[in-house]
Write a structure and sequence with these properties.
Blueprint: E1 2-4, H1 7-13, E2 20-22, H2 26-35, E3 44-48, H3 56-66, E4 72-76, H4 81-89, E5 94-97, H5 102-117
Helix pairs in contact: 2-3
Length: 120
């Protein structure tokens, strides 16, 4: 499962062997992370940084507290050094800038699938 916030991301991952779950808000995504059993196959969380109510940077430590082994990749329109530093310090595995390079995203997803298959 991949939790994603952008329709275009959900379209991309539907080409892989993962099932994307688009959530309308950070709170909904956090609920889904809480509800997902460990064996459910949560392999990656993709989150935009700029969201209403709860930002991606506020969501990130909450996801990491619930599922420390699940990588979180943040997405932002602002790829400045400070945003990247804050995301990485909060536990993000990486930061993608908009417009998203779908080749890089696909590679990230494939890597997570391979790691899961190898028991990582």
């Amino acid at each position: 499962m991949v939790i994603a916030f952008a329709n275009s991301i959900c379209s991309l991952v539907s080409f892989t062997s993962v099932v994307p779950q688009k959530k309308g808000s950070a709170a909904e995504a956090l609920e889904r992370v809480k509800e997902a059993p460990e064996e459910a196959g949560l392999i990656l969380v993709l989150s935009d940084i700029n969201m209403p109510a709860m930002t991606g940077l506020e969501l990130l430590p909450k996801v990491k507290a619930l599922r420390p082994s699940v990588p979180v990749i943040m997405i932002t329109a602002y790829g400045d050094a400070d945003t990247k530093r804050r995301a990485l310090e909060a536990g993000a595995q990486g930061l993608l800038t908009k417009p998203i390079d779908f080749t890089v995203l696909r590679s990230e997803i494939d890597t997570r699938i391979e790691q899961r298959g190898a028991g990582a």
